[in-house]
Amino acid sequence: MRNDSSAEGAPMGGEGASMQPQGGAGRGDAHGARHASQPKQDAKFTVRDFLLWCALPIAVVVLMRVFLFGMYVIPSKSMEDTIVPGDRVVTTKLAPRVTKLKRGDIVVFKDPANWLADEQTTFSSDYLIKRLIGLPGDIVECDGNGAPVVINGVAIDETSYIKPGTQPSAFPFKVTVTPGHVFVMGDNRSNSADSRYHQNDGDNGLVPISDIVGVAFARYWPLNRIGWLSAHHDVFADVPSRETSE
Description:
By secondary structure, the protein is α+β, with helices and mostly antiparallel strands. The chain has a domain at 69-236: Umud Fragment, subunit A. Helix content is 23%, strand content 22%. It has helices spanning 2-37, 47-67, and strands at residues 69-73, 88-92, 106-110, 127-134, 139-142, 150-151, 154-155, 173-176, 181-185, 207-208, 212-221, 227-228. The strands form two sheets. Strands 1, 2, 3, 4, 9, 10, 11 and 12 form an eight-stranded antiparallel sheet that branches. It has a four-stranded antiparallel sheet with strand order 7-6-5-8, with no helix packed on it. A hairpin with a 5-residue loop joins strand 11 (212-221) and strand 12. It is elongated, with a radius of gyration of 37 Å. The relative contact order is 0.16. Mean pLDDT is 82; it is low at 1-28. It is an enzyme of class 3 (hydrolase). Residues 1-38 are annotated as: Disordered.
């Protein structure tokens, strides 16, 4: 019996011994799994990460600013009430170089012939902003004294954008827009030294299209005046085209 019991005890002892390492291995595996699931603490911000998350977005914004959009501060009262002094507007540079200009567009352009000397500005600037009324080939005229502006024989209703209480033009004029130029007017007709006032500047008061740097489409400052700017293209819907080659 001693031999039997010792014979029986050997397998039991051996079986227990065989189980012990398995239990130890299980705890080790669980411990290793916990460590493996923890994120690495020594991750570094690489040059590639910098280019992807910092440099690339900055480059995109700069390229958009240079080639697609312009930002300007309004220096005078000539476009009230649509735009007032101190407003900041954003323009698209696609017009007139990629897309065509349209009557009603609010255009920003370089001072063509020292027009700013006749504008009451709050600060110095090299640019003006007006509404495009006549395209190349158009005949723009008005009899003054409250009469409407007439383009190519069609009278237009400008009450949707000119400043309330002002006339389309207080005095008469008639201009044929030459190729490569446009005729512009401010929405505040009683306080806008626009194309009407510069008939003797060498271009008959017209703005060279090459001087236009963009078309304004939104106000972005001040915060309480953020919003889209309307071109009111519908006002000119019935005007027949007389465009000439530029």
